[in-house]
Amino acid sequence: MKIKRNNGKIDVAVLGATGVVGQVFLHMLSHHKWFELSMITGSEVRANKTYCNEVRWVLPEPIPEPVKDIKLDKIDINLLKEKGIRIVFSALPADIARSVEPELRENGIYVFSNASAMRYESHVPILIPEVNPGALENIKQQGFPTKGFVVTNANCSTTGLAVVLAPLKTFGIKEMFVSTYQSVSGAGYPGLPAMDIMGNTIPYIQKEEEKMKVELKKILQLDAAVYPHCVRIPVLFGHLETVWIHIEKPVEKEDILETWRSFKFQGSQCPTLPEQPVVYMDDERFPQPKMSFWGLPAGMQVFTGRLRKEEDKIGFTLLVNNLVRGAAGGSIANAEFFISRQEREGREEKKV
Ligand SMILES: NC(=O)c1ccc[n+]([C@@H]2O[C@H](COP(=O)([O-])OP(=O)(O)OC[C@H]3O[C@@H](n4cnc5c(N)ncnc54)[C@H](OP(=O)(O)O)[C@@H]3O)[C@@H](O)[C@H]2O)c1
Predict the structure, then answer these.
(1) pLDDT for 52-97, tens place per residue?
(2) pLDDT band at 310 (very low <50, low <70, confident <90, very high)
(3) Where along the chain do the CATH 3.40.50.720 domains lie?
(4) Could you give the residue range(s) of every CATH 3.30.360.10 domain in the chain?
(5) How far is the CA of 96 from the centre of ligand 1 (A)?
(6) Which residue owns the Cα nearest ligand 1 atom 27?
(7) Cβ(96) to ligand 1 under 6 A?
(8) Which residue out of 14, 39, 43 has the highest number of ligand 1 atoms within 8 Å of its CB and is therefore the one to mutate?
(9) Nearest one of 91, 108, 118, 93 to 21, comparing CA atoms
């Protein structure tokens, strides 16, 4: 796989760079150790226009200097090829992704996508490297290495839950009851009208509960029943979730805490993946969405708190940064993980 530049970096593109997730991609890629941001797109009408003049920047950090003056391109496979780009991050709306992503795959491009369009296809992994690293193998069923592939990350609220539940599977999860308190950035830009959400909560998010059920099963290979309630709240960033799980084996609170503490991501130098994916907060008032961190590793960590036990049920809260861990950061981590696996396999082949 010859996809590196002379400076050792890999050229990448971001599709949907003007959207909320796209902005986080640019924030995270503008100084990335492995990746060089070489192409960005918005919708076609923005082609050839300068990024900072087109974007409605919503992040609490300024637009990174290296990307301010980049010209937006159209989604164009020939241009990707001309620029030598094999890795593409997609932050496209699902209906656009549904036609664009398979075409990119056919043309040998490695797509790391946030869109839900391809998530439910059997050979398309919903990858979280700390949780289901083996799912990456499915890219071979898509035709890799002869062709490209699509690797997706989970829906934002599902990601937080999957990371926290993965190490608890060992206790036997029978069923779970989840309520989400989801920020408005989860709906993209411009998202909900202020008149609908200011001073209000909306007890319905289209397709969110269905996504959580299906995706948790696919990622965790878990047969447990999932009973979600997904609610939109007037907060900008970060999704809070309250969870009760019904557990088969007798466990104490300390067992759960120790399981989260000893859950580490090992065996890779991926710059975006934190060694400690779950962080428990002792103070009962936390975690809170206003502390949805942006830096690394914190934006990629899932915070838990308020751990309780009642009979055979365990209750807790969790906080996931929907745009970092639950979207752009998740895709970047997936691409890093893919590269680290390719390099490892390359080294092993050389030894043989
Ligand atoms: N927000 C989250 O927390 C979150 C979390 C996980 C996954 N996701 C998924 O990630 C994707 C992006 O979400 P978002 O929240 O960033 O959405 P968004 O703010 O609406 O951004 C959509 C992006 O796609 C571009 N786009 C729209 N129509 C297009 C077209 N016809 N052709 C090419 N580009 C087009 C937009 O460009 P213009 O600015 O030019 O219109 C914009 O850059 C979605 O599939 C979403 O479901 C979002």
Answers:
(1) 999 999 999 899 999 999 999 999 999 999 999 999 999 999 999 9
(2) very high
(3) 10-154+328-351
(4) 156-320
(5) 9
(6) 43
(7) yes
(8) 43
(9) 91
Token pair of 141 as six digits: 């069923």
Question: Which residue's CA is minimally distant from atom 2 of ligand 1?
Answer: 186
> Which positions are catalytic?
156, 239
Cα–Cα distance for residue pair 130/285, rounded to 1 Å = 28
* Cβ neighbours for 192, distance < 8 A, ≥ 6 positions apart: 184, 202, 232
Q: Class assignment of domain 156-320?
A: alpha beta
Percent of the chain surpassing pLDDT 70: 98
Which pLDDT belongs to residue 351? 76
**Residue of 88, 165, 154, 153 whose CA lies nearest to 334:** 153
Q: Does 267 have pLDDT greater than 70?
A: no
Nearest ligand 1 atom to alpha carbon 55: 39
DSSP helix/strand/coil, 306: strand
| Ligand 1 binding pocket includes 322 (Cβ within 6 Å) | yes
Local confidence band at 3 (pLDDT 50, 70, 90 cut-offs): confident
Fold of the CATH domain 10-154+328-351: Rossmann fold (3.40.50)
